[in-house]
Queue: 4 jobs
Job 1
Amino acid sequence: MSDKLIYTGTSWTFDKLYRMMDACEEIAVDDMGLDCFPNQIEVITTEQMLDAYSSVGMPLMYNHWSFGKSFIQNKKQYSAGEMGLAYELVINSNPCINYLMEENSMTTQSLVIAHAAFGHNHFFKNNYLFKQWTSPDAIVDYLLFAKRYIRDCEEKYGYDAVEETLDACHAIQYQSINKYKRPNKISAKEEIEQQRTRSEYLQSQVNDLWRTLPKSKKKDKKEEQTWPTEPEENLLYFLEKHSPVLSSWQRELCRIVRRIAQYFYPQYQTKVMNEGFASFTHHYIFNKLYDQGKVDDGSMLEFFKLHSAVLYQPPFSSPNYGGFNPYALGFAILKDIQRVCDKPDQEDKDWFPHLADTDWRITIKDIVANYRDESAILQFMGPKVMRDQGMFNLHDEVHYDDYIVTSIHDERGYKKIRKNLSASYETAAMIPDIQITNADITGSRDLTLLHESYKGKRLDKKTADQVLTHVQKLWGYKVKLYTMHEDTLLDVYECQQDKNNPNAKQITRHTQSL
Amino acid sequence: MANTIIDRRKNPGGKSSDNRQKFIKRTKDEIRRSIHESLGDRSIEGSGKSQDIKIARKGISEPQFNHNPQSGSRDIVLPGNEDFVEGDQLEKPKGGGGQGGGEGEASNEGIGEDEFGFVLSNDEFVNILFEDLELPHMISKENKSVERFELTRSGYTNDGNPSQMNLEKSMVNSIGRKIALKTPKLKKIRKLEEELKTCKNKERKVEIEEEIRALRIRANAVSFVDPVDLRFNNFSKKPAPISQAVVFFIMDVSASMSSEHKDLAKRFFMLLNLFVSRKYKRVDCIFIRHHIQAKECTEEDFFNNKENGGTIVSSAFKLAKEIIDDRYSPNEWNLYVSQASDGDNWDNDNEDLLKILSKDILPITQYFSYIQVGQKRHGYYNSGNLLQEYVKLEGTHDNIICKHIEQHSDIYPVFREIFKAKGTTKK
């Protein structure tokens, strides 16, 4: 019995890690049938984890003061004991890079390997959003390209000019994502090649453009046309391609920022399912390991302690409540689906007739591959999950003094709760939906943005004004923003070109020197 | 699946230091203000330690489009229901804000404080403190006494110290030489050996063996690395121009200097001392304290000893002149004088003093700064009238500057004003 044990005690060694990897892989691949990228496990120190935290979890990132700020912040919080660090960090790349903290115990390392190296890894490789929007083969090379390109720009055009452009790009990065159109996959080499041809092309065009500008546009005024003809959801894409004032390197910066934002887009749409599936995986693998006699009772107890800490869902009335714990919610949903597949009762058969008595391995892999948080909750959150968690729905109207409990976890409430919880994971609920509807390039050159209000929500005025200043810098002329809710105009924001603003001038000046 | 485990713990840290420097650069004005505020209360001596800094969040916000939580209608699903039933009404928490924990839409700033606090290392602190300050009018003087050289890289040589061997260059040469000599590749030999193993034809076997033997001989004849391949990094000595300077610290320690006055003067001099020692490697400091008599003393005595007596300011300059004549020829040295006093002088000395200053001291010094410490009163100076006398000199000489320090918080701004970089003939 004891020869089967992979390890005992708390300290880890590389040899133990390798054996644990193999044992996990056996269960993940042969039993669960997971399909993963090769893993590259990297053991790192606390300091290195803090570094990774502040470069949005990427192994390398271009330099910007905001990353320095978050590093300072994280480090301060960490050393004051206000914040713990994650046990691991995993990157959607091929090979899949997993960071393990050196101070983890062997059980923690094992849990993390099962969780990230197999759970997340399978999710990255198979979920349709990740497949569509990210190229794990190219991301590390692309980040390297971006880092070098930005460093070169700093040398050529000065730190301040680069910083200012990046600040502006960062302000609208979440509105610079293609939600529907699918980008072509290209390698980093092609990327560099394309960048060169793009900038050469732009260089060759700009001079000609200025020379051939027509003297007068009066005749065209009759046909009041909006342009672009279709609203553009990707702000940085539009500015990169059409801004009248940016020089070619600034356009490239817009592109870098929006490409990286696009890379992260699937991550925040699949938080619940991704963490849920990874937790499901580590739970399954660890129980199997125990059944096989590969981990001892002590390790199993430690595992359960860790597992329940990670998956703790405080109730709404607790001071620790900070929304649904994605680990707990995702795990509960998937665990429930596994039960429905294996041992369905009458209720399950009513709710999920197509799932009852199917092979849970296939069903769960299908959910992982083809759904995101919003759609997975809407389709697969069963009544038992809602009952177990005691879910209820509050309705909040701004002008009411009270919240109203509109549904609770009962027959009448299930579907409504499920619908509302699902809706709260819609992107529009989290990130304001703002599109470019008109750019008056033949006349005043005003740029018009439209904020389609989600359930009458308005923008925070202070930050909206600040962001508009950044957009104005990138566009060079007046920028207007309308908030519309079902044909009602809620707010109008405007940002004029500031003649006295030396920064605005600076951006303009770059163009003229082209 | 090929899984690998890599130990990254030995990798060089400090990945974020670039970003940290960028952050500090961006917030430099704010940091400077914060340092300035904190300077008043703390002792300059303590500046060997790291420094807590608080800056306004204004300049470092990263705005995004956000929803205003106080708008629109919303449905919130929450866990942990105990006794609510459909139709219950719950009073909203007063005071807007938190919304009972609401959605997890907290900003990435954490708590919306107005201030952002962090710790500056001592180096960062001092660098910002003395940024764009310099000893003005510094010029390169002839310097025969001290020979200074800098080692600079200058290409490669064919022979040298093994520790300076340039591996890359040497190996490139080695490969080039082997290609030029048509050295058979090991791969080719191995291929033939493979063939030999499987070969059945006897004649062919002999042929191959012969070929392998010939190739081996040729391969062995060419050495892997030959002495002619080796290249060494070359360094050459270049004389480095040096500008040497001496700074005279002159402080009045007479009875009229109250302990408050002395404190202000000492703080100013400590700042100057720190500035000079941090910014310039090769600068001498001469400390002179005076009452009716002037005395050269050590740095420690200068800042710590107590003495009393009357005041004859000219005595200090007489001593300074002696020291200059004795040790610091103006032809070789940049001379700087910084004096602090409460402005009190023995009346009969003023004439003498001005004469010494305008004749002996000012013509040979690069820069003379005088600070008067103590309260101003009704536009007149509380104590002495030295400042009024010195102001006359400002008209006739352009290398003298006179300032007044009333309280702790004046010290740093005045210091900055005196030593603001002027981009002069500094080499």
Note: Chain B touches chain A through 65 residues (CB under 8 Å).
Job 2
Amino acid sequence: MRLPSKASLRYLLRHPWQLGLTILGIALGVAVVVAVDLANSSARLAFKLSMEQLSGRATHQIVGGPTGLAEELFVSLRMAARARPSAPVVEGYGQSRGETLHLLGIAPLAESGFREHLQQAEALPLERLLSEPDTALLADVTARRMGLEAGDTFTLEIAGEDHRLTLLGLLDTDNGSAAGLDGLLITDIATAQVLTDMVGRLSWIDLQLPQGQAGTAARRRIESRLPEDARLVRAGSRQRSLMQMSQAFHTNLTAMSLLALVVGMFLIYNTMGFAVLRRRPLIGTLRVLGVTQREIFAMIVMEAILLGVLGTALGLALGVALGQGLLDLVTRTINDLYFAVTVGDVMLTPTPVLKGSALGLGATLVAVLAPAFEAARTQPRHTLTRSLLEERVHALVPWLAGAGLLLGAAAGGLLLAGDDLVLGFASLFLLLVAVTLLVPLAVVALARACAPLLGSLMGLQGRMAAREVHASLSRTGVAIAALMLAVSTTVGVGVMIESFRDTVRVWLGARLQADLYLSVPGLGTTRAESRLDPKLVQKAADMAGVADVMTLRSVTQETDAGLVRIQAVRASGHAEESYRLKQGDAHQVWPAFRDAKGVLVSEPLAYRRDLGPGARIDLHTRDGPASFPILGIYYEYDSGPGVVLMHRRLYDRHWDDPAVDALGLFLAPGASAQVIEERLRPIAAASGAQLRATREIRERSMAIFDRTFAITEVLRLLTVLVAFVGILSALMALQLERVRSLGILRATGFTPGQVGGLVTLQTGLMGLMSGLLAIPSGLLLAEVLIHVINRRAFGWSMQTLMPADVLAEAMVLAIASALLAGLYPAWRMARIDLTTALRTE
Amino acid sequence: MPDDSLITLTGLSQSYREGQRTHHVLRGLHLEVCRGEAVAILGRSGSGKSTLLNLIGGIDRPQHGQITVAGAELTSLSERRRTLFRRRHLGFVYQFFNLIPTLTSEENVRLPLELNGWGPDPSVSAARAMLAEVGLGQRATAFPDVLSGGEQQRVAIARALVHQPSLVLADEPTGNLDAETGEQVLALLDRLVRDAGRTLVVATHAPRIAELADRVLTLEDGLFRTGPAEAKL
């Protein structure tokens, strides 16, 4: 190794704390990005693999209306339309021993050539599956988690009903198919029909059609024999639509993780800046001895690459471990909001690892460019003193602020430029940079304002603390900006979550007008097509004390523009009006709605498809495609596919589906909810339905809401952790740099306690400034998150709430982080060895 | 320019802005220094001695005038060419030693050799020989922070001479040492420079250094108080 590089590296090794914190900072930034990426990609890959397992080698599928397809269709297509190979499937979801199982009912004899996992071994008892009712197969990994072995029996709960099944055999996942098979429960089609209450019906029919002209001819032949409510679609298109639905969720997580990396970049910039600053005499001497600017630049960049490689390697390892933890949160959210997916372990694919490595090294290099230029520009003579450097920085302050304003304007322009989500995030990041550039100006103003105040309160120490923040602006500015950025993230995200929470709370309050609700327990309406027992509906409606009922039917349909949920509602009074309108005149909309003259569209769907009152929406009905006029747009905070709401009368006119899957009961004045609940509960339980009071539904909904945002909270905390490492590193470097001046203070008569106090006061002041600046910037961030990001990602509109506790938390967080980070430097500086300190140049 | 001339300064001017005021440090200096000559520049603090040394060493550029060192017109060279020139032709000794704290004595001395393309083995031998010459053969592996001031300055002298530069520039080389150590260091510098036939320009306000020089120039108000040719002691 060349001597200049050796000298430089030894400098780093002589400051192990600084070196360690820099590497940790890079590592944490990379770890968060890699973890989120791994969790995201593992969940998506697991879903994709299970989708492939589900579709097998099918090229096309025949899908039906809300109640699926009649099973006779399969036979007639095979006979008349020569639709071979073809295989019928019944799909459903159930739960057993804490696992969500994806039920796949197949016809073993028709299966040949479709699903690879069923061809895997003659050991699979497919014949017994066919001949013995209530038998099933499970992937070995799933069975192991559930503590099951071949031959065991277990209970499966579907739509509130318990079923006993015998595990006939295990699907071998040793060949690497674990992710696709995990969570899959395979039964014979007849068993699945009984379990899902679909006797005589099929979920879909798989087909393998040839390519080219033969395929076109086969498609025509089959389509000509399909009933009106059935359609031929490409295999897996429904699953693809489901996956698209969760895209915005994944994008949001990625953006949050990038925010941690941006904060990490500040940290790297700060540390490398300090490392360069402290080595000015060394670099100056090297320059005098004949080391060129280019060689100095290369030396600093090489150093950064070395740190980047170490930090990135550590970050990748941390990221995999953290990814496992995040994966549970991600899959839980996906299961709560979108679709069922089972993932045991993170799947270590090359893309997240490569992306994390590139980001870690790239961010380190970008962050080190400015310090490296500064180092290369160092004049060989030593006349460029610290005060001259600070003079330069102070001269730059108005320019930085100007650049900040310009960038802010550019961010505003980007916001207005289009409706794209990525563009929204780009402007959000630009806005954060803009706010950061305004920090030095704000610090100068705050320090000037604080100096006399602190002076009168704490005397010389107070004045010195404020002046030092001002005098070392080149370093304090960056540290304050990094902490401010992290704290504004917590303010922004905190305000967004609280505003959203409040909006959902108000919305639920308005929506849940009935006193009691009867529904089918299921895993969400996007999956199991479920229905209430008609006798139960009748009994509940006729029950004494029940004044009014509202019925609901919810089915999911795949349209050319993606999935939509069709909801049919009927109320004897005007209870439909609990759906609050966002667009449309209530006086005209509701009478027209009850007269079945059109439909309402949920806000997210209207936003995604640019629909409004007066437009039309196409749906597939019993009689083929039909176009429905849109009467108005209503508020909806569901994460599933958009909703088309119609009166039951309109639904019955277009679909043969008398089922009801939820029932709202309005009690007569004076009727006791408790009495009716007690009377109804056993009847409901006997039919496999669940009865819930409005308050209970509200509480459960809010619990799901909080669970959904658990991962956001985790990412928010991780960002603060990265910032904390940053501020600790910055404060340590700042105080180490002041070792001589603090030594002089000690020599002149400052006690160790006074020196420690001075350092603590200064760090506390920096924390206070970060907190004060984080509040306006955090609120700005919240506005963009609420009105731009959430709108573009999910189509929701909401009111901004100003939660005092979030703002107070931010101040406490900023000051406490700074004080905590200042503890060690304060302790060290108070115990400074005077002779060493005074000799340090 | 005579054949034996190593440094030629022509009409050298330099000034600094201090707030609203311009401080003229050098006002049209002329000077010629011959090869092998030892020149002392005297002057009070702030008289411009260090500025002049920085200009001769190509560390700074003059606002007016020309500097020629060893046949190279420094004022016309780019920053990179001046750095490479410095690397090859100059040795520096400073008041505050300016050793690299993270390199051992031997590595500090090897540094100019390595920069000039010497391989590890010859550079180690040469550095050890030079350290032995300055009486620090036993301290080759010591880092600067464990050396005394006198020892550090001796390492700095070894580093300034090891690559056999044409010119050694010394800025207050004894300014940070006690009288006795300063005397020893000075004697060492004088001996080594003269033995090797190098040219030495030393900025100082210590009369004892001036006694060793072939010529003494006093810098006052940006000009040499006596003509360069006549100030020989």
Note: The longest strand of chain A covers residues 546-559.
Job 3
Amino acid sequence: MSLIKDDRKVADIFTRIDNDAAMPESGSVLVTAERLEAEWEALASRADPVGVIWPNNRPVVDLAPYLSGLAVVALVFPIFRDGRAYTQARHLRERHGYAGELRATGNVLRDQFLMMHRAGFDAFEVTKPGDDDAFTEALRRYTMFYQPAVDGRQTVLRQRLHSRGIG
Amino acid sequence: MYIYDQFDRTFLQQRVAEFSDQVERRLAGQLTEDEFKVLRLMNGVYLQLHAYMLRICIPYGTLSSAQLRMLAHVARTYDRNYGHFTTRQNIQYNWIALKDLPSAMADLATVGIHGIQTSGNCIRNTTTDHRAGAVAGEVDDPRVWAEIIRQWSTNHPEFTYLPRKFKIAVSAAEEDRAAVLVHDIGLRLLDDGNGRAVFRVMVGGGLGRTPFVGKVIRENLAPEHLLSYLEAILRVYNAEGRRDNIYKARIKILVHELGAEEFSRRVEAEWESIRDGYLKLDEVAISDIRSRFRYPDFEALQDAPSELVAALMNPAFARWHENSVGRHKVPGYAIVTLSLKPVGGPPGDATAEQMDAIADLADRYGFGEIRVAHEQNLCLPHVRQKDLPELWRELDAIGVATPNVDFITDIISCPGLDYCALANARSIPLAEALTERFADLDRAKNIGRLHVNISGCINACGHHHIGHIGILGVEKNGQEFYQLTLGGKADENAALGQLLGPAVPYDGVVDVIERVVDTYLDLRQGEDEIFVDAVKRLGVAPFKERAYVAD
């Protein structure tokens, strides 16, 4: 598995802690939603960063109380064609103002990188061989975007108006 | 006509390049069939019974003559010389080889047409009234709004992996010719009483195995809020639509399970948080889209010019004129429907030669513009009335002047078992048999307005639920049977048909329909009471009583 963050391959400093695993004394951890809710006080007092893996069938409004204490929110694509996490990502970024790492995890493939990026993801757990090296190319595949999204890329309309000296 | 500029063309080239790369990776084994399937579907590529099928969208049903010629070129070069127009203003090619797809797509892209989002669980081609901009009484041109929706929904970063496909239709005229009530979202442009256009928003309509008529969830939506409101609907659906069962995944099921009121409440809550955000359409944005539509430079003419009046002495011309020519909003002009429903032919097919000839006629007589109708016919929306006699001779020569528009032989049909991997039964041969039985034009005219819709399976691509007579192919012990429904309607008073009675084997369908029609002729209150109104008045019982009894 490769982790791509801010367009580069990086080491993943987070350890995944399952529901029944022991919590290490120190180090960055990525916990389940259940543990986040049950053990928040202890998690919030840790010196090292804490993140959560949030399932795609729960609204992220439930995550709102914890967001300021989280370094990573990992949203799940159980299969690449299950697109619920795109909506969760936009809610986190646009409604809840979450500015930390937003990680795509699960069945994360190169043909979806750009849409994920546009929806607000900035970190990608990539498992398919070759897809990590194709990341930069995938993000540059398009220069034309018809609708505004989280990424701030200029829309076709704005480009067009700009080219005419309007706006 | 909406004119593509360099930005739209660049986008299309990038899309073609992306798909070419995906085809290469599939052929090299880097993409699994499961991964590739979703990507090819979103480019309009289906795997059918015998070959790949390519579905090309014709946004809001408007084509230029150059685009139609390119459709002819693709039919001739990569397929078997014909294309099939569908009920959603698309064209399908049934015999394209996978290796030819990128070339066909690149050719189409040169004239700004493509198969993007004609399939897959994404927002599909936004459709509208094929008479938009030509018919009187519209508060605004619905194509402008369909184009705004098309742009917003293209490669949408949030709504490309929805629970299921998603179809939007817009109409603005008094008569709804876009079947907006049987779409996931239906939009009607209405006058708010002060000459300002506003939208009525309907959700949860649809056919398939659980048909519903859409429910109104909002009245008087100001146009500047259209996209934020659509985004709110789609967002609720993307988050909450069912993904556990493909047959319950359409938005109509979510609306039905939550109830329209609760669904509407959730949409409104979502909308409140985004309505004044970056999707709000300002006048600059709307006028930019509007300015890219080119309208014909109409001459100042009078209705009923002498050329037309003289030609009406010819009974064959007069028959066609009465049937296939509609009123235009500009005096001296007319809207001409080209019937793709010849007797004994498959509904909605056009050959490359026909497409080329129609493109030439559009240039000569119709400002180079062609429309594709939801009923699988073509249309020249702006023809000078004095040109009608000449145009008629030319259309007749290429076989698209059958005066059967809206008659019993103007059949809507899916491709059925002859092409489709999902079908249980044949559709096209049945349609052909029906057109032969009712080939007599006087008889068809006497029967009057009667829409027959045929689907080869429960997925309802032939919209059988909303046919005045609906025919659904089912399989019984390995044999083709057909269920008949009566009284369906696709218009502004959309209704689902009622089951007539037991399913009928293939060989019996035409006879049963003939007896249903004879019953109507016996029971109607004069010629003004069309078939579907008689069914509404009488119910199904008197038809059922006679339909199954051989004479």
Note: Residues 159 and 234 of chain B are 7 Å apart (CA to CA).
Job 4
Amino acid sequence: MTIPASGAELAGEFGLRKVGGRPPLVKYAQQVWERRHFAFSLASGRAYSKNQGGYLGQLWALLTPILWALLYYTVFKYLLHVNRGIDNYAGFVVTGLFIFRFISGTMNRSASSMESNNGLITSLQFPRALIPIAYATAEFLNLLPALLVLLAVAVLNGEPLRLQILLLAPAVVLAYVFATGLAFYSARLVVEVADLGNLIPFVNRALMYASGVLFSLDRYGDGAAFQVISHTPLAIYIELARSSLMVEVPVDAATWLWAVGWAVLTVLTGFVYFWRAEAKYGRG
Amino acid sequence: MADQTPSLIMDDVSVTYRSFGGKRQVEGGRRPRWMSKHIGAVDLIRAVRNVSFVAHHGESIGLIGHNGSGKSTLMRAMAGLVPLASGAVYTDGQASLLGVGGALMKDLSGERNIRLGCLALGLSPAEVDERFDSVVEFAGIGEFLQLPMRAYSSGMGARLRFAISTAARPDILLIDEALATGDAKFRKKSKERIDEIKETAGTVMLVSHSMGTIRQTCTRALWLHRGQLRLDGPVDEVVDAYESSLG
């Protein structure tokens, strides 16, 4: 047997395939789809284990949002007597807060997701995009019981039961798609420059002020600042959720278009951005 | 018997790690010592350096060397799990590391972990259903199935991890010290299981510090020293040389 000049030549001769690296984008997307069950299993495991301690177990998935809602309700309605021009101020705040915490929590946690799953990455072969997807899905699963609480708060506040309530479903699904895109970005960014992880809390707080969680964005006047801020993704998703639950928050078709646009844009560009570094993850 | 068809080719492979939070002390470095200790304390560690070899179908190869010689990193490189600094790895089929430890969650029940681990290995949900009972039986966790893994004894946890990780059948099996888990009875069972997988896998790579295990299971051995391949040859020859180097 003659000795081939290189490994590549020998591999070619016997039909061996190159391992690792980054598959083409379309093939990568197919691999992600094939392994979706793994991502979902990872996500539901994360969501489930969050409420695993204590005697009440999974009841906490419902109790936690109830307690948050009660706290804000009491503080704003009976202690501070603020309404900032909004009749159902407690419902306004709680809805904004739950949607905000869903999106910012996804961004937060997926920032450290590649690092904290290093053991998984360095022991099993799978498209790494499954990790940010699983993180966003886990946060989404945690949001579902909170949505029930939002419905209850709205009804208890005297909001009428009308058909628009059903629009809450597409609103949160779009927010979930957007959050998944955000998760791709934050997961890779922190892998590239670990120091960025330290900036996440500041980004979060800035987003909170800019997205009208605690007050209506009308406060920014109606100039350029308002135009920009009211079209940021968080403000859009929060507004859609509020409008489906509260009569006094009107909504127009343009807001829905913005919501779809932000979701599609973020998830597609985020996926490509994450994929481009596929061969880098797991370096430790 | 080993034929001459290659199943795995390592072509001049190097792996480099970035390490944050510390830097090796080098004489005559560019920056003052106090500074490189606290700011910009990032170091590059060359864990595997220019390793080349070819493994063939039917071969069992032992990988030996001191702690930190790059054995585990090399295995991960074979499975395509760590980015390579240079070189390339070619395989015939899927090379898999035995072990799903990283995928499991200690807060979840054995049942959920079996599903999670099997899906992580790349099985389809239907395949998971099919193999579920045999995994439970092999692990011997019985009534503990519904308890969170946190509540398992370390032996029980190791048995479950082993049972899950051997649920898939890779073409090239990479084993990193997995043989020494559990009690005597389970060790015997797991050895049988590995023999079974070896028959279907074709090629097996084994990392172990037990020279007895290496001599018993392997026909060929590679000796890694500080990330470089020092010796490659028949198992007795390489293990003898390694042992005599230990003094």
Note: The longest strand of chain A covers residues 17-18.
